[in-house]
Amino acid sequence: MVAYHDLYDCRVDQWQKTADDWVDLARRSSSACEDIRAQGKKPLDDHWADATGKQAGKRLEDLADRLESGGDIMKGVAMVLDALAHTMGCAQRTLSHAIELANENGLGIQDGRAVGAYTGAAPVGPNVPQNVRDAYTQEQGHIATVNTLIDEALREASQADAKASAELDELAKTINVSDTSQAHNEILVEASHIEFDILRADIPVGKDPRLVRAWWDGLTPQQQKDLMRADPVTLADLGGLAPEVERELRGPDGKIDRVEMVRYALDHWNKKDDLDYGDVGNCTNFVSSSLEAGGVKKKISPWTGLMGDDTWGRQSGTGWDWFDQNAYHSDSWARAKGLQNFLLRHGSKEVPRTEARPGDIVFYEQVAPRHGNRPWRVPPRRRRHLGLPRRGHQAHPAHQLLPEREPGQPGAHREQERGRAAHPHRPPGTGLVLMAATSPSPSSSPATSGHPASRRAVTLGTVTAAGMVPLLIVTGVATSLHTQEIQHEWADRQREACRHLPFPMTEYAAGWAGVALGVAAVAVCVLLARRLRGRYGLRLGQTRPGLLAGTTVWFCVLAIPMELIQLWVVYSAAAAGINLGDGC
Known about the structure:
By secondary structure, the chain is mainly alpha-helical. Helices cover 58% and strands 4% of the residues.
């Protein structure tokens, strides 16, 4: 339990300096790890392949893993200390505000409680003047307000102290961890959750609106900004904040509700989506759903539906995952690059990290090859923050090479990792953004069929679909031409019988089948193209199956008109009949 004088005398700046020192240690540890791998392990592997070299390489790799794990653990320590310093600063500011109110109303502080002129000597009895009664009542109201603020400050400080102390004790037990996956995906993620919980504890949930207003007014502008970034949902649900604060939380333009976007993200991060996106991941679909929850309206073309280049949305599908993924959502709904381009075309802009707010979207630029074709869930060193669409703003793309962390700023500890699929479910730190999608940069996008993603795209399904395109085209043309043979046979049978016979239904079927098969070839090619783009991020010509389908489908430009002409000939022949000749 933090006492009044402990909080009053607290040196928050020293804790913040300690957090910065831990960040510096983490960077040094990561740098040493990279040096060992680049200048120690790699030369051994290249030039010393015997048993001794392998043993030495194994020892160096173990040392590098311990340094890398230690770096992540140090980041966890810095996160906790950052949150503790921030919360203690807020609590100290609330305590200072209580002392200022006490001084303004002629009160004093004794043993951590407000006292006044009538403390211990309440005016009672029938002979007490009314003005004295009124002064006593007013003083009691001021005392209650000051004491409530003091209690709130001590509550914030005590909760933060207890949570931070427990987490630092747990981190102290992990100093010998050499499993980099455990350090990053478990220890660091748990520290980020504790950091977030400490920051959330600053907010007086369920308190009287007047106390909330007094608490908020007692914070510095920077502390208010940090809390608005840390937990906008809880703040928005409080009563007592000024209307302009509410507008700032939800979005000053009123076009998109940022709070509802973040609320959707926090409520649905662990819920299974009704569509399975497989290896391509569900990141962008999740972000699009959050945008929709924030009030962004779908954009559907009256001519092409959701398959146009300038559309955004998703509709209920057939229940067949593969078809729904490729035919019932726009490219901008489920692919990061498509969503990024759509937002930039409709008024969004890129902003530096210092201007990012909850509800903004982060697109991670890939600066190294992916493992297989799965997108990273860990932010690389280069990040681009894309603001939400705002009327009146033009898109101004600007890549930001962002620092890993700015000293003195809570949160912002996440750094580039080496391809591990760590995915904290809640944002470490103050939550600059709560939604993310992965977008490969042009330099790393597959450009030839030799790219690993192109090889992964050559599956039994894509090969079968690609083979169906020329097969359908050839079958359609052959079926359509077969109507001529059926018609000639029908005419010969009539002349032999010397009477008119019913028009054969097989010729109708063959005529329509030719057209249907030609259209089916085009449809299969389109679905294959969307499949390759949605799942593998490839264009049709970047894989051999796709190249086969894309090349042969152009024959439909000639085949389908010919098949339509043949169908017209079938109906014309059925209507005109034949001349049986003079012998009949």
